[in-house]
Amino acid sequence: MQQKGPTGPSGFVVQPRRLPKADATTRVQDFGEIIVPPTLPNIETQAGRCTDCGVPFCQTACPLQNNIPDWLGLSAENEMREAWRIASATSTMPEICGRICPQDRLCEGSCTLNQSGWEAVTIGSVEAFIGDTAFDNGWVEPIRPLHERPETVGIVGAGPAGMAAADRLREAGYQVTVYDRHDRPGGLLIYGIPGFKLEKRIVQRRVDRLIEGGVTFVSNCNVGTDVTLAELRERHDAVLLAMGVYQARALQVPGAGPGDTIPALDFLIHQNRRDLGEADNDSWHHAKGRDVVVIGGGDTAMDCVRTAVRQGAASVTCLYRRDRDNMPGSAREVANAEEEGIRFEWLGAPKALMSKSGAVSAVRAARMALSEPEFGKRRDIVPVPGADFDLKADLVIEALGFLPEAFAAHHDDLSLTEWDTVAVARSGFATSLPGVYAAGDAVRGASLVVWAVRDGQDAAAEIDRYLKTRTQEVAA
Fold first, then answer.
1. Dist CA 60 CA 110 (whole Å)
2. CA separation (Å) from 246 to 173, 265, 272, 293, 394?
3. What is the sign of the dihedral through the CA atoms of 86, 88, 90 and 93?
4. Which spans in 50-198 are helix H?
5. Residue 301: predicted pLDDT
6. How many Cβ atoms sit within 10 Å of the Cβ of residue 284?
């Protein structure tokens, strides 16, 4: 069945995909979001491009299983309040996921239009618009449980998984306390993701809603140091571990010593703190006037290169050991970075850091080649003999991914996997400790925000069942 929106039948034929962005030369001057806020007529037009196909691949590709065709159809007909009701039924933060999800790899990448040679519906921008409109019009109702329950739940981590779980548990009437190491809630959403992708006010209004609904946040609290897991288990009827993964993979090459490189998250946190109005005391985290090389090919690397260019770097280069088609980051983010003047050195692996007068002056890299493809296997990389090259650099940022921290070192009875993530039961989120659950990156390893939201919501439902029945399947 074809969607009959403001564009008429077969709207995707009449109207092209439009997702207006600020001009690259303008947007690199500040840290504001690069997507130009759409108008209601524009949203109606783009939502009306949905073909309302019989098998909504967009929905099946969404980790949250959002009812995308339904709220696209409602948006096309200017039924925004009902669109919000549908969108918020499956997601605790549609306006955030609409901004930062890699839609090109998820819903939009699976859109029937995209698969059949037409450009995908702008699903992410419509989702964000629905959420923003709901907040602007007061449709986001405060959390007011129908019945207050006496049980308390402690959540470790105030990032997307912890916030999503807190939302659902408080809605169910539980007394929720969230413990976080940082000085404000939000985790990765506040400190890891740059403002040009997600402005901090968008996250803060979600935090404010939780606080106004009765959720308690305990900041500057490092579980394992300031309070133990055993103490939390004594204090609460259930505990959810949602602390994410923040231990950076270190660059292992000759010449790399303390202070020669900056971990990606340190670099991003520093800029996000500046955006939040905090004092800039660490000039070494700033790229202005410097030749910057970012090592890595994921979305964190893209955040770093795009942050560096906004800080006024003299040059910014991304060095990645594989080619463009095999990089883990979003193709959308690579395109944004290229528009903003970032240079990419594909098939280049760091070999050594070169120094001059005691400071880093260049990155020596080996030229790589991809091995022959094998069915079901990722192509290996092999160095090309005699093809080393140097990249001028006086600021090197490591964006090589993240590992779980040694959380279990403080909790001997907590079972881990071989990758040091928290082990959970096959059928859910229960750990080896009765009454203790885990969700998000703490279980998956470094992953997408939308998966953290999904896990947080599902873990909340499992905790609710446990507290009502006192039955639990623990991890082996």
1. 9
2. 31, 8, 16, 21, 25
3. positive
4. 57-60, 68-76, 80-90, 94-100, 107-110, 112-115, 123-136, 160-171, 188-191
5. 96
6. 10
Indicate yes or no: pTM above 0.90.
Answer: yes
Asked if residue 323 lies in contact with residue 297, where contact means CB atoms within 8 angstroms, the answer is no
71 with 130: CB under 8 angstroms? yes
> Can you tell me the distance from the alpha carbon of 206 to that of 229, in angstroms, rounded to the nearest whole number?
27
**Separation between Cα atoms, residue 275 and residue 184, nearest integer Å:** 14
Which amino acid is present at 338?
A: E
Which of 19-23, 30-34, 228-232, 458-462 shows the lowest per-residue confidence on average (mean pLDDT)? 19-23
* Residue 6, pLDDT above cutoff 90: no
pLDDT of residue 5: 43
What is the maximal distance between C-alpha atoms in the chain?
Answer: 71
Q: How far is CA 195 from the centre of its chain?
A: 13
Burial class (CB in 10 A: 0-12, 13-18, 19+), 25: exposed
User: Which residue carries 């910014």 as its tokens?
Assistant: 316
Tens digit of each residue's pLDDT (9 = 90 or more) over 425-442: 988 999 999 999 999 999
> What secondary structure letter does DSSP report for 8?
B
Q: Is the pLDDT of residue 4 over 60?
A: no
Determine the number of helices (DSSP H) and then strands (DSSP E) in the chain.
Answer: 19, 16
Do the beta carbons of residue 425 and residue 473 sit within 8 Å? yes
Cα separations in angstroms, 37 against 21, 101, 125, 133: 9, 17, 9, 11
Cα–chain center distance at 178: 20
Strand pairing class (175-179; 152-156): parallel
State the pLDDT at residue 8: 46
Q: State the Cα–Cα distance between residues 438 and 461, nearest whole angstrom.
A: 13
User: Tens of pLDDT along 298-314?
Assistant: 999 999 999 999 999 99
Q: Report the C-alpha gap between 400 and 358 in whole angstroms.
A: 24
